[in-house]
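Consider the following assembly input.
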Amino acid sequence: MALLNKADWHTPAPFWQNGPAPGAFYHFPGGSTHVDTGGFQRSQAPITTGTSVVGIQFKDGVLIAADILGSYGSLARFRNLERVMKVNDNIILGAGGDYADYQCLKSNIERKILEEECLDDGLSLKPKALHCWLTRVMYNRRSHFDPFWNNFIIGGLEGDKVFLGTVDKLGTAYSDPVIATGYGAYMATPILRKAYEENKDMTKDQAIELLYKVMQVLFYRDARSFPKYQLGIITREGGVEIQGPLTLDSYWGPAII
Amino acid sequence: MALLSENSGRSLPDYETQAAKMKSFSPYADNGGSVIALAGDDFCVIAADTRLSTGFSIYTREQQKLFPLSSKTILGCSGCWCDTLTLTRLLTARMQMYEHEHQKEMPTLAVAQMLSTMLYYKRFFPYYVSNILGGLDEDGKGCVYSYDPIGHCEVTKYRAGGSAGALLQPLLDNQIGYKNQEGVEPVALTQEKAVAIIKDVFTSAAERDIYTGDSINIKIITKDGVQDSTFELRKD
């Protein structure tokens, strides 16, 4: 019952002790006041989770980075969970939040891509289309009070244009040259925005170096992070490449007494 | 079903995690944003800031919140961004259906009524959006419709809404509506005056409201079309 307290409209608290709940019959003292209205509990919390995802646009492509840790509450349970995926030749996707929900959507997306390839018409899904589709899926689930507990970052190329967008568990969506989710929103965004403002036409190598630095900062302060990460790269010339797991250097000398 | 209601006290202690207990789900978010619309005799000016935020973080500094629905109608939205996305998408789809059915563009009055109906349709799970609709009516005169999240609709000559609505509206009352002024002869609103006032009130609102800032997008609707301009606000 404790779990049902927040949005439990079907069984409101009784007006007074042992009294009837609104719309229910009176219960005599000693009797049970429990009314089973047949409601049921949806999944209301993430279980195995991934932390921040960061993404940035550069001169001729997009980068998305996420570490490979699957946390189980405060337990660092899975140390090789990959959560940056190639969708097709012009889209990459990074996911944070509940890993089971991500896997569910991943298989959905993979099926979509397969069905599209079977048509063999030379057309392929565009990043904006996937972004929009994810928006609808996420919004639909939140409207049924059964959300996919994820943050997605979608990167890709649409013709000559570079695209970087995000969707969260409510279906809140936007696109921006710099995106970071989770703790990354607080710690990585300022670093990424500053670097982007100073040099909007970053080269691929500069962007890779920047994300390395940002992942390092996150590893130092985010308690649910890990020193190994994946890097999704998409460029006009090179197509899609998922690198990793890459290892982060860190220096903990002062921490050892 | 039975299994679930028996376990509603969650009798799986081995599988309980800290994270599983902490979070509760809310389908709404407050993403801030402010919108202003002013109507003149033969024009309508509508403006919105471009900051999309939640809590103390800014998602993006360049989010358009004005949605051109037809050549004479523009909708400004602020509040829960995911609801805004859904509402505007549904709205444009229904306007397209209207156009195909009636072989003409939907007039502003009809859009205004449809928006009210669509909002009230979700009365018991509302779109958490404060909408302001600006446009030209069928006589070519400027008009502004403002809404609450569940579909109450009002026609006005000037309106401010969104996170800084309460800061902006009194200024408009005084400067556009000539409220609380003595011995002043009201003159008809001009486009230049409207734009100047919008820039001033948004600059003031950005000083006090953390959900309003970065820049504003101003659209002037006249019979000749829509004129677009931007104006920078403080970014902190």
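The CA atoms of residues 66 and 157 of chain B lie 18 Å apart. Ask yourself how this observation constrains the way the partners meet.
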